[in-house]
Amino acid sequence: MLDYALLSALAAVVRTGGFDRAAQQLGLTPSAVSQRVKLLEERMGTVLVVRGQPCRATESGLHLCQHVERVALLEDELRHGLPQAGLDASRLPLRLAVNADSLATWFIPALAAMPDRLFDLVLDDQEHSADWLRRGEVLGAVTGYGRAVQGCDSTPLGALRYIATASPDFMARWFPDGVTETAATQAPCLTFNRKDRLQQLWLEQAFGRDLAPPTHWLPATQAFVDAALAGLGWGLNLERMVAEHLKSGRLVPLRVDLPLDVPLYWQQSRSVGTALADLRRAVRTAAGEALHPIAVEG
C-alpha cells in the first residue's frame, strides 16, 4: 500500500525543484520533507530524486509523480459529491506535451480557459510529442500522430498552415530565375532543430524528392520569422505569424500555390479522460478558432 503523505512529498520536491520550496508548499520543514522522500526511497528500493539545483525525478520517481497526479485528478471528480480526501488537484500541475508552434499561436487560450489549473508543459516536435504519452510521462499531448496511442483517446484538432517565405532581397539573390531545384539545393534554409522536417517536406512536395540545402539552426518560432525578415534564409513560417509581413511585402512566398498544412490531434490518457474533459473541450475550442480544417485524403 502506497503512503500518499510520502508520495506528496516526492511530488512537491519534483514540482518545485527543491526541498526548501517543497517544504514551504506543504507546510513542513525541509528536514521533514527530506525524511519522507528518503523513507519512500527505502520502501521502493530505488533512488527517486536526483539531488541538485534543481532536483529532478529519476525514471521511477517520475512514474510515481504521474501516479500522484492521476489519483488527484480522480479525487477531483468526487469533489462535488464527497469531501475531498487529501490532494488538491488544482495545485498539481498537469504535465502536457505540445509543439512550439502551437504554443506560440493558439494553445495558450486553451490553458487560460482553465484558470484554476496549473500546467507543466513539455516542448517537442509534433511528430514526437506522442512518445511522451507512450512513456506515461504526460497526461495529454498535441501531436501530429492521429492514431490513438495505447490507453489514450485521439481527437482531430485541425491543421497548422505554413508558408515557405523569404525576404525580397533573399529571393533576388538566391532565386533570380525562380524557385528551381538547383537554386533550392544551394539557398540557405532555416531549421528549428534536428527533429524539424518541415522544410524537407515542402521541398519533397515542390520537387518530388528529398533535397539537402545548407541550413541555419534556429530553435525558436519567432526567430524563424525574424531570420526570414533579415534575409538569413528561407523557411516554413506559420501563416498566422507572417500574414502582415506578406501583406506589406516584407516577406514573399517562395510559391504562392504551395502552403504546407500539418494536421494536429489532441491525445490524452483514457485513465483520466473524465477528469480532463474540460481540458479537452478547451483545447478543441481554441484549435477550432485558429486552425484550418484537416484535408480529407482520397
Structure description:
The protein has 298 residues and is of the alpha/beta class. The protein has two domains: 4-91, Arc Repressor Mutant, subunit A, CATH 1.10.10.10; 97-298, D-Maltodextrin-Binding Protein, domain 2, CATH 3.40.190. The chain has 13 helices and eleven strands. The chain has helices spanning 4-16, 19-26, 30-44, 59-77, 100-105, 107-112, 130-134, 168-174, 181-186, 198-207, 221-229, 239-248, 277-290; strands at residues 49-50, 56-57, 94-98, 119-123, 140-143, 152-166, 189-191, 215-217, 235-238, 252-253, 260-269. Strands 3, 4, 5, 6, 9, 10 and 11 form a seven-stranded mixed β-sheet that branches. The chain is elongated and about 70 Å long. Mean pLDDT is 89; it is low at 83-87.
SSE string, helices as H and strands as E? HHHEEHEHHEHEEHHEHEHEHEEH
Overall average pLDDT: 89
CATH fold-level assignment of the largest domain: D-Maltodextrin-Binding Protein, domain 2
Give the overall shape: elongated
Rg estimate, integer Å = 23 Å
